[in-house]
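Researcher: Please generate the 3D structure of the following complex. Treat every line as part of one assembly.
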Amino acid sequence: MDATGIGLWGVPLAILGGAIRVSTPFIFVSLGEAITERSGRINLGLEGTLVFGAMTAYAVAVMTGSPWLGLIAAAIAGLCFGLFHGWICKFRGVNDIAIGIALMLFGSGLAFFFGKPFIQPSAPDLPAIPLGAWSDIPQVQAALDVNVLFLIGAALAVFLWWAFRNTRAGLIVRVVGDSSDAARAMGLNPDTVRLIATGVGGALAGIGGAYLSLYYPGSWTEGISSGQGLMAVALVIFARWNPLGCFAAALLFGGAGALGPALQSVGVTQGYYLFYAAPYILTLIIMIATSSPSRSLAGAPGELSITK
Amino acid sequence: MTDTVAGAGAPATFGVRGYPAALEWIARRAEAVVIPLAALVVGMALFSLFILAVGKSPVQLYETMWRGGFGSWFSVQNSLSRAAPLLLAALCVALPARLGLVVIGGEGAIVLGGVAAAAAGVALSGAPSFIVILVMGVAGMAAGGIWIGAVGALRHYRAVNETISSLLMAYIAIALMNQLVEGPLRDPASLNKPSTQPLADIYRVGNMPGMEVHWGLAVGVIACVLSWVLIEKTRWGFAARIAGGNVRAAQVQGLAVGSLIVGFTGLAGAFAGLAGMLEVAAVQGSANASLAAGYGYTGILVAFLARHNPLAIIPVAFLLGGIDASGGLIQRRMDLPDATVLVLQGMLFIVILFSETFYGRFKAFNPDLWQRSS
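Model: Done. Output below.
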């Protein structure tokens, strides 16, 4: 991106555009993880789901020529990973965090295994809506070229925020997450609810992966995800399991991720790798700032092992 | 598995009660060997199905794997070379695990340990070789120890989840290495692959006598044995095991849980940092992006497979080193992607974790439930 036309204004503009572009996978993964964690389990395997979703979406899009079919395939693949995590964690002695780590390695390995033939060919992209068409300035147009998935993610965040409070399903997930015993007393089976919640969480993470390979960066490589799935887990804690908070936090993380490329576009190349690490550093600082040894986190689901 | 070695009092008991007592003694300890081995077999069987599904022969695959990893002295040496960093990387997971912490960012400590060692080696060039190698080791251990020790400190003093923070710090460590290797520490002569200045030959860690395996293997094995002694035979290890079982109980007992956590995570990181130093001093000759080769992640699998027992880490690291080493041969001979090995590792990992559910379920392993005829 050439920012000479508008000078240093290109930096905040590029960060805004980058925030919208980079944040979309964060939005989907963190909303999925919010559903899972609200039900009382934690799925660290979403990192692997994200990579596998990216590969599946790309492969299906290459073979069928339709990015939407790729998106659906990625969601189904993510659903399978999520259901597997939900199923295996119901057994006594099986640790959800450890299984998540295993699925992280397994999902990536499987994606690299099947993704080898798809590194070369190019797939059709998911469409974007040019919200910046009113402007003559190319930088503004570039920044406001918003992908439909970003808008769907924003709508989903609002819907989930509403649904957790106002629907029967939302209440069931929250009860199971807060107390397995209370849920059983209500005649609910916590394992079934968690199975479904983890499955839905996986499907959303798969969609996040599809965005990575089909829009931005827009190709399938083995290094396509570098911890986004994992940062999303930290982000959910930061957002206090609130879907609207997840959306805001995802935008913040997206902006941090766009910092390096934005500065590079105006010629600042010093410390490129450190700017590249900005989202990780930001996540860590936020985790340090918001955790406390003396009190449990406000809004934390009671059954969640990570906050105990 | 721990107790197979630890149960020194057992033979005396045999003398009194004879054969049935021996049988009980074996039964009580067999569970920790039989269940992981069974899980390993099940995992390999599931992987066979996967290989069948993609249209290849599992028999040929395991035969190739055997040849590539274990079948000849040449391949055994190759496997042992790969096992060396895995031993230390697995300790980085296993030591905190005894305190109930799941630290998965050993890769970061390896990378920074390697960079610190390379920087120390270059800075001291001209000094006697044993001093330089010693300082490199200390520098690597310090860098790794501080890195993972910080994860432990954050866990104890700020209640920051150690699993997530350690992995985030691994990404930060890799970025830091890239920055240092491309910037202040870069050797101008390294064009395509930015590296630090290469170490002079006298500062390299060589091979052990009679084999093509560097001394890192011996270092790793010694580290595992020392860790086992630390956990099983010292009061710190005893305190750590109590704290790992129940933090509150440990605090009520007046144990310094904070120092234990920082000490154990620091030591764990120091071992991983040492692995990075050995990668630089024995394998690469300089610090560069190859340091992030994934040993930290395979080490997680090794530690879980060994159920965080430092002595069990030794054979498991050799096994996974062999699987790693056979990856290239599998790729060439069978036209399978190099990620085949990753898929196998992932499957083994899941099956091993699933096998946790079977502990305490079998009567055969619990003599208390045996029907006594007398």
